[in-house]
Every structure is written in structure tokens, then in C-alpha cells.
């Protein structure tokens, strides 16, 4: 009730206050920023968003009376609409340049009274409907611009709803219970809703871009569902082992809840790494996404346990409840594909590692041709009016018309500069505007499109050769120049950003697992995941592989903002999976000091939940392809690829394979460093839950000098599950007794060094016994059972 009341109050407050998102974009110490400052000085009154209406006739010209009367009537009607500031058409003396040379294409500029995000959607729709009504009989009318984009986007929430439904299917398959399926979704919705309302309120006191809300929803849904999944899985395991629901919830919170806190902290730290880039417009993104992650963690460790207590045994499926009532609780042994895969990795670590590395390297190859830039309406789907308007303008006025450059001069532009710019290779036309407030502006239309690499070269030529040769104080600005500068700034600061978040992640894992190799391995894996996922991005969005299938429009450069945002999210999520995987391995290592067993058991017991969590995130991220936003779709595909590769290839194949190859070196830490590092327990040792465990329970190991462990298998090498393994003194007194796991593994505690009798029996394989001599460390003893055989130890 406390969460419901808090969310309701926050929602009412946020709704009353509204949003005040600010698209503040500043690149200090760049040429485009200096051009922008001069433009503000020259034209301080320009505030409203300007969109474009473009039309083309199949026969005759746009000057024909039939075409002109229809379009003038439509333009006049749009100009009378409340909220439209001005309409500049081609049918007057000042608009002659708005008609193409062949006379078949013309455009008009519609300036609204507000910026695009503040223009009422109903007004934009009226403009679109009025323009479209003039079309027909060989006349095509299309519209482009930021405000127009809003009316062709799918309904708000479509991507989120599809992602949640896909996650629900995965959860139901994993849990087999509708109530258990709903729990992670409810927790994620509370966390995301709280984050969105909080971000709305924060937007009134600091600059927060609208992008922050989209990314917060994207990451909040993913981590919220995943964190709840880890806790619910541990809770169900506790109930199946015989604990009452309240005790199981407390145990789940004290184990998986700790790991969730640690994982959420790593995500926030990775997000905060964006601050080192000194790109101030990202500050709002950090605030919005971090707030949502924090609230998702709080919901997982406070709201979720309360819901678990209310549901009681109903969190189990009906089949599980019937089985629990009919028999003594023994829990659910780890079995199936996870165990078989874990054993395969142990048997063939080199082959598994080689295949994984080759796959990741092959996917990373396209990264070599990565080109950062801006996405515009030329990347929209070919069926959208914005894309059609973009193409018509390029057809009628040249590809560079959609991204003109602005050479801004502090003072009056000399004739020599104008002629020099006109004579520059790659310039289609130059229009000099009269000086305003002591500033002159040359509108330069390139011969190539805004996303063409030749346009970037033209900007460099103007800045490095043409303007210095003219000896004037001038700067190159415009959206295309800003995009180029942003890509350069991002590329320059990316190494510092990557180094920061890799270093912070290394320190956190060093504290958690008391090892130098584990965090070093994690860092390398994170870089591999980043390289491969960006390779996928380049192949899809820059090369165009599969774009038509996904319905994502036209290929182009990768959005300049994406590397920093995507890497911060990727590194944070990768750390989550590393923590959940290695924490179980570390627990087993502490008990047995057997690296091979620790890696095998850790992978077998965590791979299923990690893969389920990753599959949910992939569904949520891919759903944002439906958002209608090309940039959001790019982020969704990139993050989905990154999570899939990280979970399914790296964490379940390459990481365990490498840990098998490295052996005991995985857990090496210099003695001097061991003494100086503070102790950070990600997950405490579990108490005995009555289930056959890969490690001895607390009672068994209390006072034990060592352990005997190994596998029980048939002569063909198949594991024997449920075999009774008993450790006895030479005189026949029983010391410990366990049942072998699904992979045939067992472990029994030894009170002191010496010689003991180990007896193993399983139907229909008969029994086998042998003397084992145990020293100060763990003793490995594999047992082979033959059908009907009896082996007597002398």
C-alpha cells in the first residue's frame, strides 16, 4: 500500500506540474558552437519550429493555374490556423527560389509559434490533413520536419506494451505460474513509472532531454524484470526445499537481494561514467536513467518481498504445489540442458573458447568501418511522408538541400569570401543574407547529402582552407556541421569514458571476489561484447543488412550519441550477469577449493536464470523497434544484440571456458593486497535448505578438515543421479551421506586427514566401495557403477 500511495502521489504531482524537457545541446570549444552563438546574436527572435511542405506534379509545372490555385488555397488555410506563425510559399517574388529548375517540384515553409515538442498534436494533424487534401490528379504533396514526425509515430506505449507481453511469455515458460509471471512485471512497472514521474519533476529544476525518458523506460523495464526474476527464482527454490513462504522470502532477499543491490549499483556507476565526457546535455540522461534503476532496485527489495509474502505458496505452479504436498520437500535438482552444457564446457574448454572467440571476432569485423554521424528523416521508412518529402527535396533541389551549411561571419561578409565559397569543390549554391545585428550568414548547399562523407570533407575544407585564406572571422555551423563536431568530440572522449567505467568495474569485482583474474576477464569480455554489438549495428544500420525486413528505413551513419549511451548501459548490464554467474562459482570455490567443480556447478546452477533474464531484456529492447523513432530503434537493436551476445556466448560459453583453462589462477590475489582490501560480501553463504547441494551444508563442513568430491558415472560416461554416497570410518561409523546431482557430482565432508571408506550405491547399478586417503586439501574420487555389480573394499 505504501508503494501504491507513493506512486499515486508522485503521478498526480508530475501530471499537475507537466513536463519541461529541454533539448539543450552544447558542444563547447567547437566551431559549430561559435557559429550558433553568432546566429543567436543575429536572429534572437527565431523560436518556433519550421517544417516543410513539398509538392510535385506529374504533368506540366507547379506554376500551372490548376496546381497553383489548389496549393495557394491549402497554404492560406494553414496560415489561418491558430498556432501557425507564418507560411512562406513559392508563389511570390521572394519565393521564386522555392521552385525547382524544371518547375515540377516546389516547397513552402510552415513556421509554428512553438518548438516541435510544444506544438499541439491536433494542430500538426490539421496541417497534414489540409496539405494531403490538396493532393490528387497527378499532384503529390508530402510534409517533413520535427513537428510532422510526431503524428506518424505509433501510439505512445506501443513498444513498452509489446516488450512487456514478450517478457510475460518468457516468464510464464520459466515459472509455469501466472502469479509468479506477474510479479517481475509489476515490480518493473512500479520502478519505471516512479522513474518517469520523478524525471518529469526533475525536468523543472535542471535540463533534462526527452531522450532521458525514453532511455529510462528502456533500461528500467529490462533491469526491473531481471532483478525481480532473480529474487523470485531464489524464493521459489526456498519454498520447494521446505521453507515457509515468509522464511523463503527473507532468505531470498538476504541472498539474491544482496546481489541485486550490487548489480544495481554497478549499472548506476556505469551510467555515471557518462559524466566524464563533459557533454553537459548527457547530465539529464544520467539523472533520469539512474533514478529509474534505483527505484527498480528499491521495488525489487521492498515491494517484491511484500508481494511474495501475500501470495504464499501460490507463487509455485499447481504441479509444484501438488508435488510439495504429496512428498517430503527436496527442492528441484539442477538438471537438463544446463548440466549437460556445463559438463561439455568442462570437457572441451579450448574448443568452446575458440568457437566463441571466432564468432565474436566475426561479428566485430564491421566495426572497422564505423562512421558516426546524425540520423535524419532521410533514414525514415520509405512509406512515411517525412521520407517522401526528404526525397522530393533532394530530387528537386539537390541532395545537399536537406542539410545546408551556414558560414556565419562576425561582421559583413566580404565578396572575396563569397566567391571563394562558391568556387569550392562540393558546393552547389551559396545564398548571402543581408547582415543582421552585425552578423552575416552565407547559406551553403553542398552537392552531397548531409550523411555523405564528402559533406564532412567539405566542412573541413571550408574551415581549414577557404575561411583562413579569406582572412575573416567566420565559422561553419548548421545541423550537419554540429553533427560532425559531435562525432569528433565523442570519438576523442570515448577512450577516457571506456577507461573510467572499465576501471570502476574492475575495482568492484576485485572487492567482491578477491581476485585479480576474474575482474580482468570481465573487462576483456565487456570490450568483446561492445565490439561485436557495434559490429552488428554497423552491419544493420550502416550497411543496411536486414533493414527492409525490420522496416527501419534507409541505411546511414551510426548516431553520434549512441556509443556513449549504449556502452554505459551495456557495461552495467554485463556486470549484472558477471556478478550472478561468478558469485555462485566463488561460493563453491570457497567451500571446495576445486576450480573445475566451482566453474561447472556455478554455470549449471545460474545459466538458466541468466539466459531467461537475457531473453527478457532482448524482447524489451527489440520492442523499441516499434517506437517509431529511428534513434530509439537503433539503440534497441544494439542493446538487444549486446545482451544476447553477452549472455548466450560470453557468460555461458567463453567465460566458463576461460576459467577452466586458467584453473586456480582465477582466484589468485597477492597476500599484501588481500590484507588491505575491505571485504564486500555480494552473497552470504546459504544455510542448509534440505536439498542435495553442490557444496556441503553448514552442519557438514563445521569442523571438517577437507572434503571428498567427484562424479558418479556409468562405464559409458553417463552421469548417475540420486546415487547414495556415504563416507564411513574404517570401523563402519557413518560420517556423512549425500545424493549425487543430475550431472553425477557429489561432495562429502571429512572431519580430519586420514583413510576412510566411501560407499556408493544406486539402483539398478548395484554398489561400489573403496578406501580413500585424505590429506590437508580436497580429495577427488570418481566412481564408476556397473549394472548389477557389487564391489567390496578390502
UniProtKB/TrEMBL annotation:
UniProt keyword Protein biosynthesis present: no
Recorded superkingdom: Bacteria
InterPro entries listed in its UniProt record: CarboxyPept-like_regulatory, MMPL_dom, Mycobact_MmpL
Transmembrane annotation, as ranges: 161-180, 211-233, 259-279, 285-312, 351-370, 494-513, 525-545, 557-575, 609-626, 632-654
Domain Membrane transport protein MMPL: 26-351, 454-668
Membrane topology value: Multi-pass membrane protein
Record-linked SUPFAM superfamilies: Carboxypeptidase regulatory domain-like, Multidrug efflux transporter AcrB transmembrane domain
Family: Belongs to the resistance-nodulation-cell division (RND) (TC 2.A.6) family. MmpL subfamily.
The name this protein goes by in its record: MMPL family transporter
Natural source organism: Streptomyces prasinosporus
Amino acid at each position: 500500500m505504501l508503494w501504491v500511495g507513493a506512486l499515486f502521489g508522485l503521478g498526480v504531482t508530475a501530471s499537475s506540474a507537466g513536463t519541461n524537457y529541454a533539448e539543450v545541446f552544447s558542444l563547447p570549444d567547437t566551431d559549430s558552437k561559435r557559429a550558433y552563438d553568432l546566429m543567436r546574436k543575429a536572429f534572437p527572435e527565431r523560436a518556433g519550429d519550421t517544417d516543410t511542405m513539398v509538392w510535385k506534379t506529374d504533368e506540366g509545372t507547379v506554376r500551372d493555374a490548376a496546381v497553383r490555385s489548389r496549393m495557394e488555397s491549402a497554404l492560406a488555410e494553414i496560415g489561418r490556423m491558430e498556432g501557425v506563425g507564418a507560411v512562406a510559399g513559392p508563389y511570390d517574388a521572394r519565393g521564386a527560389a522555392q521552385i525547382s529548375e524544371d518547375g515540377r517540384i516546389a516547397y513552402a515553409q510552415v513556421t509554428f509559434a512553438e518548438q516541435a515538442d510544444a506544438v499541439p498534436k491536433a494542430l500538426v494533424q490539421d496541417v497534414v490533413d489540409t496539405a494531403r487534401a490538396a493532393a490528387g490528379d497527378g499532384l503529390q504533396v508530402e510534409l517533413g520536419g520535427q513537428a510532422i514526425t510526431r503524428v506518424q509515430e505509433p501510439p505512445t506505449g506501443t513498444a513498452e506494451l509489446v516488450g512487456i507481453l514478450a517478457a510475460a511469455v518468457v516468464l510464464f515458460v520459466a515459472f509455469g505460474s501466472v502469479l509468479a509471471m506477474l510479479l517481475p512485471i509489476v515490480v518493473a512497472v512500479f520502478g519505471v513509472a516512479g522513474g518517469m514521474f520523478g524525471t518529469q519533476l526533475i525536468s523543472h529544476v535542471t535540463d533534462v532531454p526527452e531522450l532521458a525518458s525514453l532511455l529510462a523506460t528502456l533500461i528500467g523495464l529490462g533491469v526491473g524484470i531481471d532483478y525481480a526474476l532473480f529474487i523470485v527464482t531464489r524464493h521459489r527454490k526456498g519454498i520447494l526445499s521446505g521453507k515457509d513462504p515468509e522464511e523463503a522470502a527473507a532468505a531470498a532477499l538476504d541472498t539474491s537481494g544482496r546481489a541485486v543491490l550490487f548489480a544495481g549499483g554497478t549499472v548506476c556507476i556505469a551510467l555515471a561514467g557518462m559524466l566524464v565526457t563533459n557533454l553537459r546535455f548527457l547530465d539529464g540522461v544520467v539523472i533520469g536513467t539512474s533514478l529509474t534503476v534505483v527505484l527498480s532496485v528499491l521495488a525489487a527489495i521492498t515491494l517484491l518481498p511484500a508481494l511474495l509474502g501475500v501470495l504464499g505458496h501460490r507463487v509455485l505452479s499447481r504441479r509444484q504445489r501438488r508435488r510439495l504436498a504429496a512428498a517430503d520437500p527436496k527442492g528441484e535438482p539442477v538438471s537438463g540442458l544446463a548440466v549437460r552444457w556445463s559438463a561439455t564446457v568442462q570437457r572441451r574448454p579450448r574448443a568452446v573458447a575458440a568457437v566463441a572467440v571466432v564468432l565474436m571476432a566475426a561479428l566485430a569485423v564491421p566495426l572497422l568501418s564505423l562512421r558516426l554521424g546524425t540520423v535524419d528523416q532521410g533514414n525514415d521508412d520509405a512509406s512515411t511522408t517525412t521520407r517522401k518529402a526528404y526525397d522530393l527535396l533532394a530530387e528537386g533541389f539537390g541532395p545537399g538541400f536537406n542539410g545546408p551549411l551556414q558560414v556565419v561571419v562576425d561582421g559583413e561578409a566580404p565578396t572575396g569570401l563569397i566567391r571563394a565559397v562558391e568556387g569550392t569543390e562540393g558546393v552547389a549554391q551559396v545564398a548571402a543574407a543581408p547582415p543582421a545585428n552585425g552578423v552575416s550568414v552565407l547559406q551553403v548547399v553542398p552537392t552531397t547529402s548531409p550523411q555523405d562523407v564528402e559533406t564532412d570533407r567539405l566542412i573541413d575544407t571550408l574551415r581549414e582552407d577557404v575561411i583562413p585564406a579569406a582572412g575573416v572571422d567566420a565559422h561553419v555551423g548548421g545541423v550537419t556541421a554540429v553533427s560532425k563536431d559531435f562525432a569528433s568530440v565523442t570519438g576523442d572522449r570515448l577512450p577516457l569514458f571506456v577507461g573510467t567505467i572499465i576501471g570502476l568495474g574492475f575495482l568492484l569485482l576485485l572487492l567482491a571476489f578477491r581476485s585479480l583474474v576474474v575482474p580482468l576477464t570481465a573487462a576483456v569480455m565487456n570490450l568483446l561484447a561492445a565490439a561485436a554489438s557495434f559490429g552488428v549495428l554497423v552491419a544493420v544500420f550502416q550497411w543496411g543488412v536486414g533493414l527492409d525486413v525490420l522496416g527501419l528505413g534507409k541505411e546511414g551513419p551510426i548516431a553520434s550519441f549512441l556509443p556513449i549511451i549504449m556502452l554505459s548501459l551495456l557495461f552495467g548490464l554485463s556486470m549484472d550477469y558477471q556478478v550472478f554467474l561468478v558469485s555462485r562459482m566463488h561460493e563453491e570455490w570457497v567451500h571446495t577449493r576445486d576450480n573445475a567443480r566451482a566453474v561447472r556447478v556455478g554455470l549449471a546452477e545460474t545459466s538458466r536464470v541468466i539466459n531467461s533474464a537475457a531473453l527478457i531484456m532482448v524482447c524489451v529492447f527489440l520492442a523499441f523497434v516499434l517506437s517509431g523513432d529511428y534513434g530509439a530503434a537503433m539503440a534497441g537493436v544494439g542493446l538487444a544484440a549486446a545482451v544476447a551476445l553477452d549472455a548466450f556466448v560470453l557468460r555461458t560459453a567463453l567465460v566458463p571456458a576461460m576459467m577452466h583453462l586458467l584453473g586456480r589462477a582465477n582466484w589468485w590475489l597477492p597476500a599484501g593486497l588481500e590484507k588491505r582490501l575491505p571485504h564486500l560480501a555480494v552473497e552470504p553463504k546459504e544455510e542448509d535448505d534440505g536439498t542435495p547441494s553442490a557444496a556441503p551444508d553448514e552442519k557438514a563442513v563445521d569442523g571438517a578438515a577437507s572434503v571428498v568430491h567427484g562424479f558418479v558415472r556409468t562405464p559409458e560416461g553417463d552421469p548417475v543421479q540420486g546415487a547414495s554416497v556415504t563416507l564411513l570410518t574404517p570401523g563402519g561409523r557413518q560420517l556423512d551421506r549425500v545424493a549425487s546431482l543430475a550431472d553425477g557430482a557429489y561432495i562429502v565432508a571429512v572431519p580430519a586427514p586420514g583413510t576412510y571408506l566411501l560407499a556408493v550405491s544406486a539402483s539398478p547399478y548395484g554398489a561400489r566401495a573403496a578406501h580413500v586417503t585424505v590429506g590437508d586439501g580436497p580429495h577427488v574420487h570418481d566412481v564408476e557403477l556397473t549394472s548389477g555389480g557389487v564391489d567390496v573394499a578390502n
